[in-house]
Amino acid sequence: xxxxxxxxxxxxxxxxxxxxxxxxxxxxxxxxxxxxxxxxxxxxxxxxxxxxxxxxxxxxxxxxxxxxxxxxxxxxxxxxxxxxxxxxxxxxxxxxxxxxxxxxxxxxxxxxxxxxxxxxxxxxxxxxxxxxxxxxxxxxxxxxxxxxxxxxxxxxxxxxxxxxxxxxxxxxxxxxxxxxxxxxxxxxxxxxxxxxxxxxxxxxxxxxxxxxxxxxxxxxxxxxxxxxxxxxxxxxxxxxxxxxxxxxxxxxxxxxxxxxxxxxxxxxxxxxxxxxxxxxxxxxxxxxxxxxxxxxxxxxxxxxxxxxxxxxxxxxxxxxxxxxxxxxxxxxxxxxxxxxxxxxxxxxxxxxxxxxxxxxxxxxxxxxxxxxxxxxxxxxxxxxxxxxxxxxxxxxxxxxxxxxxxxxxxxxxxxxxxxxxxxxxxxxxxxxxxxxxxxxxxxxxxxxxxxxxxxxxxxxxxxxxxxxxxxxxxxxxxxxxxxxxxxxxxxxxxxxxxxxxxxxxxxxxxxxxxxxxxxxxxxxxxxxxxxxxxxxxxxxxxxxxxxxxxxxxxxxxxxxxxxxxxxxxxxxxxxxxxxxxxxxxxxxxxxxxxxxxxxxxxxxxxxxxxxxxxxxxxxxxxxxxxxxxxxxxxxxxxxxxxxxxxxxxxxxxxxxxxxxxxxxxxxxxxxxxxxxxxxxxxxxxxxxxxxxxxxxxxxxxxxxxxxxxxxxxxxxxxxxxxxxxxxxxxxxxxxxxxxxxxxxxxxxxxxxxxxxxxxxxxxxxxxxxxxxxxxxxxxxxxxxxxxxxxxxxxxxxxxxxxxxxxxxxxxxxxxxxxxxxxxxxxxxxxxxxxxxxxxxxxxxxxxxxxxxxxxxxxxxxxxxxxxxxxxxxxxxxxxxxxxxxxxxxxxxxxxxxxxxxxxxxxxxxxxxxxxxxxxxxxxxxxxxxxxxxxxxxxxxxxxxxxxxxxxxxxxxxxxxxxxxxxxxxxxxxxxxxxxxxxxxxxxxxxxxxxxxxxxxxxxxxxxxxxxxxxxxxxxxxxxxxxxxxxxxxxxxxxxxxxxxxxxxxxxxxxxxxxxxxxxxxxxxxxxxxxxxxxxxxxxxxxxxxxxxxxxxxxxxxxxxxxxxxxxxxxxxxxxxxxxxxxxxxxxxxxxxxxxxxxxxxxxxxxxxxxxxxxxxxxxxxxxxxxxxxxxxxxxxxxxxxxxxxxxxxxxxxxxxxxxxxxxxxxxxxxxxxxxxxxxxxxxxxxxxxxxxxxxxxxxxxxxxxxxxxxxxxxxxxxxxxxxxxxxxxxxxxxxxxxxxxxxxxxxxxxxxxxxxxxxxxxxxxxxxxxxxxxxxxxxxxxxxxxxxxxxxxxxxxxxxxxxxxxxxxxxxxxxxxxxxxxxxxxxxxxxxxxxxxxxxxxxxxxxxxxxxxxxxxxxxxxxxxxxxxxx
Length: 1415
Hints:
Blueprint (H helix, E strand, L loop, with lengths): L5 E3 L18 H12 L15 E3 L6 E3 L9 E3 L4 E5 L5 E3 L2 E4 L2 E5 L7 E5 L1 E4 L4 E4 L16 E5 L21 E2 L2 E2 L10 E7 L2 E7 L16 E4 L4 E5 L23 E3 L10 E2 L5 H4 L6 E4 L10 E9 L4 E4 L12 E2 L15 E2 L4 E4 L4 E5 L33 H4 L4 E5 L4 E5 L1 E4 L12 E8 L5 E4 L2 E3 L6 E7 L2 E3 L2 E6 L3 E3 L8 E3 L2 E6 L2 E2 L36 H4 L2 E5 L5 E3 L2 E5 L4 E5 L15 H8 L8 E10 L1 E4 L9 E3 L8 E2 L2 H4 L8 E3 L1 E2 L41 E12 L9 E4 L2 E10 L4 E6 L14 E3 L2 E3 L38 E3 L4 E3 L10 E5 L5 E3 L2 E5 L19 E2 L13 E2 L15 E5 L12 E3 L2 E5 L26 E4 L3 H5 L8 E4 L10 E5 L9 E3 L7 E4 L3 E7 L24 E4 ...
Parallel strand pairs: 1-2, 2-4, 3-5, 4-7, 5-8, 6-9, 7-10, 8-11, 9-12, 10-17, 11-18, 12-27, 17-28, 18-29, 27-30, 28-31, 29-32, 30-33, 31-34, 32-35, 33-36, 34-37, 35-38, 36-39, 37-41, 38-42, 39-43, 41-44, 42-45, 43-45, 44-46, 45-51, 46-52, 47-49, 51-53, 52-54, 53-55, 53-56, 54-59, 55-60, ...
Antiparallel strand pairs: 13-14, 15-16, 19-26, 20-23, 21-22, 21-26, 22-23, 24-25, 40-49, 48-50, 57-58, 62-67, 63-67, 68-69, 69-71, 70-71, 72-76, 72-78, 73-75, 73-77, 78-86, 79-83, 80-81, 80-86, 82-83, 84-85
Helix pairs in contact: 12-14
């Protein structure tokens, strides 16, 4: 054995049996004896552990004083030994490796708590304990003092000069780290063993330790580690509230004395900070370092201060300098007018106040330099933080990554006995770019419910990577911690198996990416930062959206709370200042990843080994997000503008190009820092599948809650409750601030303010073939604010001339030249936005993509359109082909398109259509008529609902602009033809109670001829973009033969954009009196499932043009697109069977379906086959059917070649199961949440301790709970949907034979449509003004088209005795006074007689004719 140069022992002691080796008695002992003689003869016994030059043994419980050391020797504290280190002015202990299997105590004196303990690495082994302070109530440190215990960990990546620390004292013969070697072998991995801790004993699988990545040992270098059976207890005084909650039951979800919020705003040039908890109670002493977080769009507006004293009777702090930015400190109290009582929102207060946090703690774990005596480095952004950093080489232009990014890391491995950090500060933690080396890290510790696994009231700041990582570990408690300045993600759940952890009231600030920019002074790379680059190119454009988010997440998507498993308590946290395209919270839909994928797991850890992203939320509530591109994300990918990739000009592990960072163009784009280590560990990236979503699935399910499952029994609702955000949400075009994908969700109590682009979007997988059966999701009782009132911070404002985004503000955001770039960028803040993407950028809080989703009892407040004054370009063609307003390089100035303010006809004034409700455009998916909306409130909202429509006439034919248009003041040529298709003409919202549109049970739908009807009117507060229609609508889909039975060149699968010509469908019910002269049409389109679909009126008559040739369709596409591209037709073929499928129909629907089969075929019945079918559930392409009726009645017109068939859905009621209760039973679900009780769908959760019980069972003012929404507007009836299959005859040819003008249209018959019209004119559908909320949404019957738009004379009605209401009779033979025809006729007579007497003879004649018909 190596010599023991210092041996503390007052009398001979007996070493532990397993450790002791005598120097005589066997050959091995003889050899050892010879070796011993060759060295200094100071040791009479030795151990098999590595050398410990300073060695403390047990002295039967007596405490020994630790020698100071000089840093040249390693220290071992053997089992049973008790050693203490005592604080004092200038006291510094210096060692190399420190191994503790006994007890090492740190004690302060009455006069001093200053102590430095310097070590290359520290390891607590089995039965070892390091403790400072006795408990939370008896902490280390002096009251009102900044005296500190510093653990200074030094070293560098050279593992020859600085080898990793190992278990010395508990490694012997057949044991490793105190564990029998059988557990470390491959055969023994996963063996069940007992684990003992402070809470008791459990049995769990044990897995042998493996080397950390890039290390040659289990714990690494420059580390503070805890091994099997070891305990670490550090209790500091500063920042700890001794009576703060320690469990979910008694926690107040506040920051305690670690952090709080402002009590009033701190404005620029002010040097007083007034926290919500008084300065005296917080007890932060003079000289403390604090932060005040940003409350605007820029992450670098968080400011650091030093406390200099107290003010205002010790309620406030004075600080060392004046503030540079505005920090909001007032709660916004909303009035009853803004949030009516009918919404049943309990708390009208909106709290976006800045957080105030203490960085100092009484116990510090800090990164030292390369050697034992190197000073603690000061953070670059605060030179006086710990020591004078004015000459800090890590803050220079070319920092050494092996020093400046190589910080201290800690690790707690499986089987530790106890781990409690309370009031501990970690500075410069983590080792940049190195997987598994984090400031605070639970590493594969698995189930820790047997002990305390606690980090609370700690401060982790200026981190090299992450704040706290929970990796393969469960039941960890993270309470009231402060994280400030990480590279990459902040609080990090790593492998997707981390469940039952408490993340409560933690603060995460300045989450930065591994990018060249001012906030990454040390040029630290990210870990999840895999890149692909060309070896000679500097200008490769980095397109992260072409790969999964996780591969570049530490570069582009740094996230405050990265949650790979949702089944945790995430409560009361606060995230602020997230750089680049990151998020405050990201539920990453992974499957079990990394080493955890090779281990056994149960519960919601185990289910993610089966199905990615399947864990539901345990609790996600009362969390805050300020200043972040995303608020909450659940997608496997996102987008990010403004990035290019650095060129690896240098060799080595960290390749970054400093020269490129100083080029003139460096402020125009961001350059990533290449981390070549990231490319070497691809298998350790989270297991994430493209297209996967967050799909909460019940335990024990054999299938995932996902599209195409047979039923919803595996499904759960992912619940998001209480998410408060401001200046968070400036996402790229296709995403939203709060983005939930694929699963079923309940979102409630959201407070969202000051966003750009989209607010909340709940996304499914597309159309009815690719969503969960009978899918529904709901957003309720939330408040959306366009701009928080009384906020004078220009960097937080969205509206107004002083807004940072307004081009009229000389100090505002200066976007890059339109010709060169497609983004706005604030380089110093890590802020970017893609302002040149079409149809995006403007506010829309409830953003609809695909669905169906619902909303209820939401309040929209202070959403105001921006109105820039536009001047035409001096020439017709503007930069990059843009036409219209020549606005300066500002965010809204380059939004495209900018609509014209039509309320000012004499001025060419545009407006930015910030709106309460809007749409993702363009969209290639079906919009189902099931976006339910009710009990909405609007206060000071200019535009409630907005959609971009092409100018008139551009849906068909040439879609380019050649001159300035009356509809838009800024646009790009052909933008509608290229980007949009007829799918974008079908945006629809179902207004159940009229609170959106002013008309009960109506639909808000695109303006345009195709959806016009006698009771269509411009939707109030829609900027003229949307109509309200009181008629119900449904979906008509055309399915071709299976792929193997058709020519794919004539009918390919994909038809979701303008490259495809879908079949033309015409509405054959016309408005009379010259309002319409020909049937309006639409192209039936669809996503990549082969179907073509569109919305139709439930009782309408529609003509499908099956005759269009390929040439005609190609000509149409080229006229629309005006540029070369792929072409995809939808051409019908002879002798092939097609199916018309009806979805979202009412039980009494009576549509008339017409299609062309060829002219002059008197024997058409021998070649044409019609079959009424039931489409079987659940849907999946190809859809399965069951025949109901062969050859139903139809008519065939020889001259036009058109077949007509009317389908009366009530005839098939029994086979479809369309009675109300049967449909409700079919729709009610998912079973874990909802069940039928009596005739209603009710909450099925009975356990009041279930976290979802209150949300599920809460009764609203109408006596309903949340499950009511699951039964609205069924996609199908309980037994399926009605379908009509038609096999075209062998004589058929797609030869453009249909002449639409030869087909006689019908009028809107009052017998089919008049019921709703009469209800409207009788006032039954019109919402009173006090309910609709504004005069603009209060209608009178005379505002709608008069009755003359219907067939004016009963003699013109098509007589069909089988259709109720047209020619109905009571048993007495008198007309039925309740029939649609009679009621409409009476209305028509009343209207005519009230308007003119000249028609009275005609009315008399009409009455006589009507009486004759009845007789």
